[in-house]
Amino acid sequence: MSTMKFCRRCNNVLYPKEDKEQKLLLYACRNCNHEEIADNNIVYRNKIHHSVQRRTRELENVAADPTLPRTKSVRCSQCNHGEAVFFQAPVKGEEGMALIFVCCNPSCGNRWRD
Predict the structure, then answer these.
(1) Is the pLDDT of residue 43 over 90?
(2) Are 107 and 77 members of one domain?
(3) Which residues sit in the known binding site for Zn(2+)?
């Protein structure tokens, strides 16, 4: 993860700058024009950590998402409803992706994986 960089000459903040001819990422001081080559190409990383409550709320609303594919070839084991939405998602502790089904019955919301 990159951290804030400061000018060696005047201690002001260095900002990312592109050298288009040499195709390099530089850090440049806007005060004294000092430049240095970046040691890696990550300028900024934004990590988002959702709370458990937010992730649960998002999964509850999945069945109402019109952009997700739907199938009538499965039956919910909880309520026997014959329609579900499905999507692929990573499974914690396992490699690869799993096919996740969510029951479309608004009073159920059961989730299972294939």
Answers:
(1) no
(2) yes
(3) 7, 10, 29, 32, 76, 79, 103, 108
